[in-house]
Structures are given as C-alpha cells and as structure tokens.
Amino acid sequence: MAVVMDADRVSRSLTRIAHEILERNRGVEDLALVGIRARGVPLAARIAGHLKDLTKFDVPVGTLDITLYRDDLMIHAVGPQPVIRRTEIPFSIDDRVILLVDDVLFTGRTIRAALDALIDFGRPRAIQLVALVDRGHRELPIRADYVGRNIPTSRQQSVQVRLLELDGRDEVEVEE
Amino acid sequence: MTTATALKSRHLLGIEELDAGEIELILETALAMKEVAGRAVKKVPTLRGRTVVNLFFESSTRTRMSFELAEKRLSADTLGMTTVGSSVSKGETLSDTARTIEAMAPDMIVMRHASSGAPHQLARVCKASIINAGDGTHEHPTQALLDAFTIKERKGRLAGLRVAIVGDLLHSRVLRSNLHLLRKMGASIVVCGPATLIPPGLETLGVEVTTHLDDAVTGADVVMMLRVQHERMHGLFLPSVREYFKLFGLTPERMLLAADDAIVMHPGPMNRGVEIDSAVADGRWSVILEQVANGVAVRMAVLYLLAGGEET
After folding, report:
1. Which residues, including other chains, have CB under 8 Å from residue A160's CB and lie 6 or more apart?
2. Chain A nearest CA to B266, separation (Å)
3. Where are the domains of chain B?
4. B47 shares contact with chain A (CB less than 8 Å)
5. CATH code of the region B141-291
6. Are A57 and A85 in contact (CB under 8 A)?
7. pTM, whole model, 2 decimals?
8. What is the architecture, at CATH level 2, of domain B20-139+293-306?
9. Partners of residue A37 in chain B, C-beta under 8 Å
C-alpha cells in the first residue's frame, strides 16, 4: 500500500492540467468537459472551477455513464448486470472540443466505450482525454492528452483514486 | 427500503414475485434508459448479438410496439410472431410452439397470451428468459412498472399517495399488477367499479372498495382508469354504455374532487365517452402520453436487467 499522490499533489495536478488546456486550445468558448462516472465527474467539475478562475468563463460540464457500451457486458453470462447511472450532457456536443475526463487510464477499454457513447450524441470537432493517473498496460491504441501523473504499475496491482466528493479525502494509492 | 443490485429471477412473470428493492432497481434503471430517447442516435449497443422473440398470442399494438422499440434501442435482434398466419392458427399447442422456438435458441421471449399462467408454463420448458407482456386476467407487469415510473416522475414518490383505480376490476390484469406494485411501495389504494365487475374478495387485499366514483376520486393524487374490455364481456355485465359513462365515466367535474395536482392515467386504448371524457383525456390532468413514452424506457430496463445472470 503506497500513497503515490496526496491531496496537495492531486490539487496541483488539476491546476496544471487546467493551464495546459488553456495553452493548447486558445480560448475556452468552444470547450466542454465530460466526466466519466464515477470519479471522472468530480474531476471534471474541479477542472471547470479552475478554468472559471482563470478565464471567468463557465465551461459546460456533462456526465457520462458508459455501462451500456461496455465490451465485457454480455461475455459474462453469470452474475448480475452492473447498475446503470444517468448520463447527462445538457448541451450540444456538435463542433465543440470535448475534454473527456477519467480518473485512471489503464487498458483503454473504458475510453473506447466513452468515445462510442459520445459520438452517439453528435459530432464534436475534437475529443481530448484527461486522466488523473496513467498506469500503462494499454490494450487499445489510446493515449491521454493531459495526465496528472504517470505511475508505473504491474497488471496485478490496483490503483485506487479517492476524491473528497465521493470518498471524503483526496488520495491515490497503489495496492498489491 | 434499499434498492436491489440485481433481479432474483431471470424471468419477469408478475409483480407478485418482485420485492420493493427489485421494483426500485427497475425504476432507477429506467431513469437512465429514458435519457437514450433524447439523444441524436437513439440506440445503444448493449444487447448486441442477443435474440428476443416477441410472441403475441393476443392482439396488441402499443405493448408490442413498445417492446420492439425497447429491443431495437438496445440493439437486440428481434423477431415477432402473431397468431394470425402462424402455426398456432393451424392448431399447434403452446408447448409445441414453445419447444419449436426454444430450438432456435433465443435469449429472451416476450409473451402475451389470453390464458392466465401461459408465460409460467413457457418458463418451465424454455431456457430463455420469459417476460410476461400480459397473460389473460392475471398480470401485466411492465404496465404496472411504467405506471409507477410515471407517478414517481410526477409526484417524486409512491409511498403515501392515494391512488384510485376505476373501471372493469374483474377482467383487468393491469389492476392486479398495479395492486401488487402499489401495495409493495406503500401507496394507499381505492378501487371502484360496477358491482358486477368487482371480483369477490378484493377487500381482503387491503384496498378500499367502492361503487361510487365520487368517493373514489375525492382526495386522490392519482386516478387510474381501466379500459372497459368489450372482448372479455361474454356475460351481461353492463346495462348500457351510456349508463356506464353516467356512473363511472371520468369527467372534468369529477376531477375537481381530486387533489389539486392530481394526475389521470390510462393504460390504453381509451374508449372516449365510455370510461373517460375527452376533456379529461386531453386535459391538464392527463399523463396518458407520458405513460406511452415511459413504457419504452421501463421495458429497456427490464430487458437489460434480465440479460444478466442470476444473483450469485
């Protein structure tokens, strides 16, 4: 059990990512954030907060549940179906630059599902990926545009991201 | 009450077999499914490669279309059979039809039948999950679920509401499913209909029974009208349609007795001027078309939840 990011480090990473987003996109009017449930949602809200502090502009924030797009859903015939939560994207994604936000980037399969889901909502001008942690071991040709921290791991380890809004504290831990 | 994480059975034969937590799970899943209908592409790949057979041994337009739309929105492969023009009209028994369909290995069968208990018989011989889309005068579980979803959407809750259910109580499977559901969810129920159409023993189910519509409607949060089922009236239950409307037709005047924000529901198809006045059916109380829209979301939820395995 090793804590690889504490609250301070999580906070500084998100501030840096907000600056990188502004640097790369020149203007925020066409941007929108979409957080992947569960922990991408508070992360997207926090990045929106930083962008507001920096530009006084409210970047719209949406929520995506990718359960209906999972590629392993129907493979396991035993066991109950995962619970579906609501997807809420209360703005048109057409011609916007969508910043897709997740906590951990691992195999890339969640992101694949999220890309499929997003494209069912319209035709964004571009989709950029934000991940708090990139732990490697990709199974698909997917990479993040903004990374809080790269953490080398073995496949057997698990990475636990805890966030204030859902878990009472900010912390990233690698567990065996 | 806590929401269940899965359904206990792989079939949905009736509301009677569900507990409150399972009902809550279906309603919450339906809320997520409803969002799909608002998208540019109204389809998700969830049931890709799954086959659903729609077996309708009794005529149905809205339920069949609603199930088909739900299946298509989840990307399932669907095929339908109606009795006209099929081997059933050539005299095949239900068991033989079931075995024939079973040999084609569908994953789910949605079934409507004029005999109570027909889907239960199918569930005993088939490996597929069976969804009851209405069996005789027994149950119509997805109708009760979409009614509950609609009430919850409008009222925010089911517990503590006064629900009046009015009409042909004797032949109504919608009534039976709704009674089970509303009781499990803590609503108080009053039922009303002509004495000839009240099944004996109804009051033992913990509901108020009356033959006066004004009493039933007074103070009601929800008024649920049942269709007068001419096709099941083999006996002489009603003197005339005009008399029925006079005593049991829901009019705007009668709706003034209900709670201020009361809603009116009807499972369809409506007989205007028989059980419901057009001014009510099209009026501010009516949520009848919302029920139709919500039916698709609720059926998507049921299909999705039954496609998983049993709780281990």
Report:
1. A171, A172, A173, A174, A175
2. 28
3. 20-139+293-306, 141-291
4. yes
5. 3.40.50.1370
6. no
7. 0.89
8. 3-Layer(aba) Sandwich (3.40)
9. none
